[in-house]
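Give me the fold.
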Amino acid sequence: MKFRDFFDRTYIINLPHRVDRRREITKELENIGMPLISGKVELFKAIKPKYRGEFELIGYKGAFLSHLSVLKIARAEGLKNVLIIEDDLTLRKDFKQYEGMILTELLESKWDIAHFGYCGDENHTEVNFPILQPCFEKKEIIGAHFYGVKAEIFDELINFFEVLLKRPFNHPDGGPMSPDGVLNVFPQQHPHINRLMTVQSFGNQRSSKSDISPKWFDNVPILSPTVNYGRQLGLANLKMLFKPSPKRRIKPLNQS
């Protein structure tokens, strides 16, 4: 069983000007036999708002509205489920080895939201079984770049997004926030939601310039080639490229 067959539709959220990310995610998915096919695996033109409004960052607002729009499209199309991918997804090297096992477990489980990838799990260790395990109420997942949603909760989840959108930032019950924030708060306030996650993560976020929270060095044209080269090498912390050399102590001339 393959992800392309299990999910009615897969949407890849991508800003039109990010041709680099579009190229990389297309190659990533083609490697697992999941090419772009109209009506099955499609690109969604990410929303780029002009103002951040109540959001902490304008990029959070764009991501929030993009995920909400994808859910609305899935509901309007009458899909029974949807797989949502962000264009910086990078799959675990042995993903294909476990793909069928993950989906078999999903078929045998009661689920509403399933996270197949998240951040903070870079050290790929041995896979535990069952691979899919409950994501308890207080468990917070970083990243909304690789998850599935069932049609049964489209209305409830969409309504929650829209309620948050009407609230001020830092509202005690949740206000405008990043999509992964929504996916964490939603189950906490709706305990009946069955939220699963893979153990380990089968999809991390590729290191690339972020449109949500760009780094200072991404805005310095002369540094761009160095930054991109570092990312291609897989450097986890680009700040190391710009870390100043330690100061050397110079001995006085009269000191032996």
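DSSP finds seven helices and nine strands in the chain.
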